Amino acid sequence: MKRKLDANDVPSPEPTSKEEQDLDFEALGLDPRLRQALIKEKFSKPTLVQSKAIPLALEGKDILARAKTGSGKTAAYVLPVLQAILQQKINDPSLRATTGLILVPTRELAEQVQKVVTSFTSFCGKDVRSVNLTQKVSDAVQRTLLADFPDLIISTPTRVLANVNNSALSLEKLTHLVIDEADLVLSYGYDEDINTLSKAIPRGVQTFLMSATLTSEVDTLKSLFCRSPVILKLEDKEEKGAGVSQFVVKCAEDEKFLLTYVIFKLQLVKGKVIIFVHDVDRCYRVKLFLEQFGIKSCVLNSELPINSRLHVVEEFNKGVYDIIIAADDQEVMGAAKQSKKSLEPADTEDAEEKEEKEEIGSSEDENEESTNKKSRPEKRRKMTGKEKDYGVSRGIDFQNVACVLNFDLPTTSKSYTHRIGRTGRAGKAGMALSFVVPLDQFGKHRPTSVSSSKNDETVLTKITKRQGKMGHEVRPYHFEMQQVDAFRYRMTDALRAVTRLAVQEARAREIRQELIKSEKLKRHFEENPDELRQLRHDGELRAARVQAHLKHVPEYLMPAKGRKGISKENIGYVGFKKTNENRIRKARDRNRGKARGKKPSGGKVDPLKTFNRGRK
């Protein structure tokens, strides 16, 4: 039997049974107000994790589910919790208590979950009130919010415990507990908080554990909170990246910049792109390099305020800009490395990490430690390998990504899998393109070299092996280097301008700009949300030397096949010298010999030819 194709001509996953094929949200028996919100949000049919988890949750069973970001797991636990809250309000209209608690490892995830809750409760009026405790507000404001007994709390473990300890939050009537990204919660140093919370949470609470991998940390949480949970190991083809075409380009270190320039300037990739690089400094080097050619991009920088980071992702999802440059290491999404509370490498590693013997840094979350220093003593801890794969490749919801460009190859095959999972989601086609530096080319161009590239070929072997086990092929991609080499001198010219000092200055400048925007404009944007659209993060940072001629591709450099795909405005010659022409004066000179006052060849003006006859 032929499989149906979706809008992107990608075969849709085959349902495992007729029940799954016919199942929709109407058949789940949800409250009409929730169904109305689902229609508004264009949720037509449940995803695999939703179709499996929601019926079990509505039956009151504990659930331990393995599901990645993008598989619909947030709705899989939010809908049953909201259904329970609404049912409790019907049974007891006078009920005023917090009955639902959702724990997440980071502020970014808390913000995303809060948005989902808000959208699903848009038709519930005041029957469901939720509070995100990770917002940067004073203790007095937070106590006021909790004094109104919100039905649902979204928070990190540290914030919840701090409010439980100062009696601002009561968990006595809690009925539902969710721990999202459960494999990361303990890894992020919340083990002490979780153990304390387990004593404050009443027995018999229905628990949902959502995780990307089933690890020893998840087993610990399972033993603390669950009662004979139903374990869902979902192997959705979409989660494996079935819709992702994977390509590898072997090139020298400086050729990464050359190929990136050609890809974007000749518009070889259409749509939104995430560029993954080694570290934050590398982000700004790539951004400043692209600026030399008039290519706009924005950096997802761990040092920026939380509001700016969330806004970067939100605007990218809306299509305000098409290129995000992100570092997928210990510096991304958490500035822990910058503070004295930075975390140390692990002494106990994930089984796969032991096998591969590859090191990546740690991650997250600086905000919880700094905000709650009083709630528990400062400590230095050791981390497991789970944090090493986090970065922006997990937890952040990027939408409609056409291509993932691994500018710098990740250091583990597992991290690679998480990265390419940003594209080819929900049945849509996607592409992953990775640059690999051969060992004999490593270190030959020091200005563009990074230490991680030394092991690119070894990591590629493990990536190919891992993807092969999942039935996916990593294929080589060959550029016509004879045509690409024509652009090499322009690439060299641009790289000279992007000095180390220019990168440092750009990094500091953007932090200052975003801090001003975050602090001074926060209240203004709360009152005028429409004006947020005008706040962009992909503006030019300016390298030490801006060369205007590099922004255009001369006609003689254009490949014959590439002329049709590129817009004409990007082609043309720009001189090296700046002209001082005044366009108004130029227009006057051009019009001097026209219309009235134009002298004939004899030098005299004929009054009959210049006479204007008036109306009678």
UniProtKB/TrEMBL annotation:
It catalyses: ATP + H2O = ADP + phosphate + H(+). Its main location: nucleus. It comes from the Eukaryota. CDD domains: DEADc_DDX56, SF2_C_DEAD. GO terms for molecular function: ATP binding; hydrolase activity; RNA binding; RNA helicase activity. A motif (Q motif) lies at residues 23-51. Residues 373-383, 585-601 have a biased composition (Basic residues). InterPro entries: DEAD/DEAH_box_helicase_dom, DEAD_box_RNA_helicase, Helicase_ATP-bd, Helicase_C-like, P-loop_NTPase, RNA_helicase_DEAD_Q_motif. Residues 23-51 form the DEAD-box RNA helicase Q domain. Keywords: ATP-binding, Helicase, Hydrolase, Nucleotide-binding, Nucleus, Ribosome biogenesis, RNA-binding. It is found in: Nucleus. The keyword Iron-sulfur does not apply. GO terms for cellular component: cytosol; nucleus. Residues 1-23, 336-387, 580-616 are annotated as: Disordered. SMART domains: DEXDc, HELICc. Residues 243-482 form the Helicase C-terminal domain. ATP-binding RNA helicase involved in the biogenesis of 60S ribosomal subunits and is required for the normal formation of 25S and 5.8S rRNAs. PANTHER family: ATP-DEPENDENT RNA HELICASE RHLE-RELATED, DEAD-BOX HELICASE 56. Belongs to the DEAD box helicase family. DDX56/DBP9 subfamily. This is RNA helicase. It comes from Penicillium angulare.
